[in-house]
């Protein structure tokens, strides 16, 4: 069910003008209460910024979704730490008629470096520092854009479908910190080495730095990996999806997305061979959430890894973030994630295979049983 949340004039001495916010309301039953609250708000003029924010909060509260909420300008600014470029934009991959990937600006921080340089939402990025980005993923392009704070990057953009191209120079405003820590450990049999990798959050550097860590650990003699997602609250969902793909084979399902809108109902599949076939163990706990749960479920349900620790947090919602005119924002639930084995993550979490870290032999036996069970289920479906 798609409903228009607000098309309101914020008047009075603040003179904030018009702002828009489109709410996708897919799973909750507060529509009637919401409509009543909206009508009540619109009966009288809103005189102050604070009153406008309070009105938005009241309307959102009627949707009965604890994860759909209002952000003050200060809170919205803090979310910029998930900006995958460091210049205040988020990128979206789109495909032309030939199936070639193009990169467009999905979101832009008003007043941020990119916006101040003349880049606008909907623009297509053509090149970064002279390197053409056609065919790249958003994360590959982001790695070209990223750099030390207060340095500059040259970006060529195309305005609209029929507009001309423009080359702009943008000053980087923030440096994305690596969320990856790794070390080489002696395996429990004393004869082999395990590569331990802790991933603290899913930001723009997560995939790139994880690949570097795996390569270095493998070169150092690691014959298995431990991916530690404990206390990882998530971050960029797309980063989690891209990391899960590193361990999965072509055609395997990473996650399903569901929602009442037809565009939200799709399967996300791996399109390349896995980057490594080394045995993998994933550590989780009650604070493993969101993008972390997507990775854990994808690796577990495809029999690629065992899960060790505690039941995960249980946040499997798809959310969109909208910036309002005065720099505040709204976080809106638009769908849900469902694991490859069709389990609903939200409010359920994911149960681990073991509560304590098993030996390599026991771990491998668990994966063998998983593959056998999956094969049997597939044969029964064919029959």
Describe the protein's architecture and organization.
There is one protein chain. This protein has 383 residues and is an alpha+beta fold. Helices cover 27% and strands 30% of the residues. It is built from nine helices and 18 strands. It has helices at 31-42, 49-61, 73-78, 113-116, 138-145, 206-219, 237-247, 291-301, 360-382; strands at 2-10, 17-24, 69-71, 89-95, 101-108, 124-128, 131-132, 152-158, 165-171, 180-186, 193-199, 222-228, 253-258, 266-269, 280-284, 305-309, 317-323, 329-338. The strands form four sheets. Strands 4, 5, 6, 7, 8 and 9 form a six-stranded antiparallel beta sheet that branches. Strands 3, 13, 14, 17 and 18 form a five-stranded antiparallel beta sheet that branches. It has a five-stranded mixed beta sheet with strand order 10-11-12-15-16. Helix 8 links the parallel strand 15 (280-284) and strand 16. The protein is globular, with a radius of gyration of 23 Å. Mean pLDDT is 80; it is low at 1-30.
SSE order and pairing:
Layout: E1 2-10, E2 17-24, H1 31-42, H2 49-61, E3 69-71, H3 73-78, E4 89-95, E5 101-108, H4 113-116, E6 124-128, E7 131-132, H5 138-145, E8 152-158, E9 165-171, E10 180-186, E11 193-199, H6 206-219, E12 222-228, H7 237-247, E13 253-258, E14 266-269, E15 280-284, H8 291-301, E16 305-309, E17 317-323, E18 329-338, H9 360-382
Parallel strand pairs: 11-12, 12-15, 15-16
Antiparallel strand pairs: 1-2, 3-18, 4-5, 5-6, 6-7, 6-8, 8-9, 10-11, 13-14, 13-18, 17-18
Helix pairs in contact: 1-2, 6-7, 7-8
